[in-house]
């Protein structure tokens, strides 16, 4: 009985952690390059829609994933241009994109399928040994991300640009280019995260389905100290809190009202952040637009 | 080797460089001398590709070039060591040096990088450990890393921007040796500075820049400081402030066995005790980073000391809030005028009330009339330009911003005036003015505590000088006894025990 | 030396015009983008905009309803702009609004004014109590965020959003277990008549006396920010925390204070809307949206109470006209969200760009 329970806990946690991990990796790349990306939530939402749409049109989940990633890159491109080219306040730009995403997806939902609640079902990305493909992809990408950030020249330059862009500029590193890398990569990863939600864990798009996961991913970035391995740990923790509801339901415990399980991930996030003074380890130039002298 | 002809650069309506000609010979050490704001940094930034000139040509090794950016300048063989180091604190020495020109293919080969750094470090006699993190090495070592950065990229011409700002007199001599060594290995050096002594110590030739124009180029050999100062400013300069003997009376500030930690949790102030009496100026001399900032922060309430006491006029103010310290009659001209001294987006009038804003009220509401009155008085007495209390502080020049702060603090009529780097970044005229005001405060019976990284300023103004080294007061000398040699020695940790 | 002073009025007018240009431009751009989407939807923009105009101000009743939509936006716009002034981003207005709704319903329902009292007095008192309860609830909810930022340095955006979701679940649970009118009902008990805000300020519409409270709140915010020492402190912490600390102003205290005040305004939004329009708490699984709209209102209104009122009117009109555009011209009301997002986007990008352009000029001048 307990082994089965542990099995359920593990699978539920991994499933819950996957979109968070993918989005968190995106957040890490963006912030490491110096651009705060609060728009992860919006990017995820838009991508989860496009993934379903592309899947619906072609009947292929491969195209669906591709669609999600491309949508993520394009949507994050808006944030990139606003933050890097126009030096906009990155928090405001991110929030704007989040709000627009809600409207955009609702509008498109109406246009494509004529209904407001959600899309029809599509082919789901298949499972492998009981776990969805996305789970394996997420954890593999985390390891790749760690290598890229800390063991390559590209990663060194990316981090330099997030710590001290002026210093990097004076040795000839193209600050804007590296930051575009950071933000667009975060868009691709958030796109993957969105796709994992709509065609990996579920098999349709539901209005507002991200429900704050993009922000929890941001908390995981901070909690994990802007390190992909740390993000793995953090998202697993948050994944546990999300899957608690399932666990208790399986156990047949009804004393705790469902709303409290709903609250759990958010509450845990607050607790984790409060207990963690992570500010001093953020990339030093994160959130500050870079002005090139001329 | 290098020839600049007719270089002109404008920023809006300000002409920073006005048709400047400059010629630098191969293998020489050429000083670019000028006051703060004269345009020397702009000129060198153009040479390094950070700015594009509006007019003029650059000839490098006989061929005309257009320098597209720092990357291009580096390719040409021009390297720059900036005044504010361009180093990434959380990276190691080697990572900083190889950034942008990393060994290995896609994967970064740090072993090779570290090896390479050790090689050039020995070749040029600039000792550093490639695996140290920048945030944990000394300022002098950081400067060596900056120089190595340029050398790693094959720089033949090195531009050093105010290199001695952070060094003790002995370290300046060290730097001189390093520079001579580099020249012996075939390099050419341009050094930007406003310090007359350095020019005489280090340079072969000097080009003087004043208000964007090049005045002249002369041999450094045989010149005096006064001559150079005259060239730099265009008139005879009072290098020393006229002051009478001081007649100190009772102690106003008493610091006893004060200790404090810095932001990283390390001991910054170690068991410091001293007094400042009414009617005297006490100067604290020392190289940047020896605890002066933390000491002042502990006295003014911006930092909690770990032990010891601070008393002003007998009142115990240890670990009190900045508000309580100010209310006790302490004025503070802070080290960082833009980050601490002013709210840049407030008007001059609103800034005049900063710190005492609760006193500018009527029936509980703010009294802007009263603020403006004070601002008008400050603007008039301290010659702030433009003389408009409604102007936003951000639109003032650095010198005028500083005058607003100095004016505000002095007009509060404090018993103790703490001035930290009060003339940093100011032109000679403003410096003279503020020096005279500080002496005037002292003559009217106030206690003045001066902290400055400019040794000349401290020697000029202070009646008593305390030398701070690694968090402790290692020496105390009177203004008369102080010489650059003995002070310099103590600032570096050698020589004299407490007097 | 005579120091010249520019006439206060002409300077005020100059400032106002300068402040309006960017938001107006951004709004126009937003409307253009909206038009594009209307066309994408295959609908006729002209028909859409006529329907829009009629819905907003075609009749007195319509205008009254537009004002009804505007009132909560004034409060939430003030809330967000006050927080912005102290350097904080209060994106938690949605959650603060929810808890304030519950609080005002509880006080509005559970307290029964003595029947012998003249209705006017009883009404004034009850409304005051209920509204205050809402404001306090909002202040407390936001205060948590302020405290966590002041004490633990946690970014207020993430915490605010977390509290939004927590509030959603919490209020659902409270409704379920304590406040349901009767099982199966999707709402709470109604508030007592004495706690309701009188409607009908404009014949035939639901426009209620909350309008006066909103305008008064704007005035109070203006006075606080620019006429009191507390406001001086809040603004200096927002503009230059280092200088504020140097001047003896407690950054921590003002962080909490500003968030609490902001939350109180958000709470007023919830309380006034409940007492003026809903008169009870309706079950909900989604955010009402006034909080997010408040961000747009604050940005377009340049964080100034007067600007906020005008911007609130704009967005109130959008909210009122949007559904009508759908009904009359078949345009999906999601277009409104797109317009809003676009307007904020352009206001943020444009404003900061200009500001930085000026700063760069000054920096270059000084570093030469």
Please provide a written account of the structure.
By secondary structure, chain A is mainly α. Helices cover 73% and strands 1% of the residues of chain A. The radius of gyration of chain A is 19 Å and the shape is globular. Chain A starts with a helix and ends in a 20-residue tail after the last helix. In chain B, helix 13 crosses helix 14. Chain B has 2 domains: 232 residues, P-loop containing nucleotide triphosphate hydrolases (Rossmann fold), CATH 3.40.50; 241 residues, 3-Layer(aba) Sandwich (Rossmann fold), CATH 3.40.50. Chain B is an alpha/beta fold. Chain C has a domain of 239 residues. The relative contact order of chain C is 0.20. Chains in contact: A-B, A-C, B-C. Chains B and C meet through helix 10, helix 11, strand 18 and helix 13 of B and helix 7, helix 8, helix 9 and helix 13 of C.
N-to-C terminal Cα separation of chain A, in Å? 69 Å
- Rg of chain B computed from alpha carbons, rounded to a whole number of angstroms: 24 Å
Report the portion of residues of chain A in β strands.
Answer: under 5%
Q: Tell me about the biggest sheet of chain A?
A: 2 strands, antiparallel
Rounded mean pLDDT score of chain B:
86
Strand content of chain B: 25-35%
User: How many strands in all of chain B?
Assistant: 22
Give the full name of the CATH homologous superfamily of the largest domain in chain B: P-loop containing nucleotide triphosphate hydrolases
CATH topology category name of the largest domain in chain B = Rossmann fold
